[in-house]
Every structure is written in C-alpha cells, then in structure tokens.
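FIELD: query
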Amino acid sequence: MTKYWYVIRTTELVDRNSTQYIGTSLHSPTEIAEALARREGILLDDLTHVSMGGETKKYSDEWEPHPDKIILNPQHITSILPLKENWQEYSGSWEASLLSRVEDFFKGIKG
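FIELD: result
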C-alpha cells in the first residue's frame, strides 16, 4: 500500500505563525483534492516534526502521549504540498550545503 507524504498548512496560529503538519496519507494528491471538494476531513498519519536544522522526529516521540495522527478540518486547510517519498534523505544534503556556506563565509573573513 502506497503512502503519500504531505505538508499541510492550516489557519491554526501558534506564535502568530500558521501551523503546518507533515505526515502521510493513503490518498493520492488527486484523491485529497476530491476529498477537499467534498469538504471531508483529511487524515494524516506518521506526523513528523522537523527542527530548524532538518532533524525529523515523530510527534509521539516529541509530545507524549500525542498520537502521530490528526484529522484536519478542510475549512482550516490553506495549502497542501505533496512531498517526494524519500524527502527525509534531503536533510543530509541540506546540512552539507549549510556547512559549506558557513565554511565559505569563514574563508572569506580570513581573506
């Protein structure tokens, strides 16, 4: 059974910022769009928290006893971004890129 990864942004505010949820659904992007058109809730499983440094952690590991699933009200969804199946693998390249930029910055300071 294929799982699709999504980032779903909502109107829910935390510290004046809209909230986003990262998780999986058994529904394809087309099926998600059809469910939204019917005003049906969207179930996300495998909720994942991503830190500023790109580290991933399951919601249930981060905030016990929070389960790692949520049903989102379609009236509060502002955007849905499908992710690549292996999106977690990109954090390594992001970290390497950031490290490279920091090293270049310090090289520039040294002259």
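FIELD: remark
The chain is about 30% helix and 40% strand.
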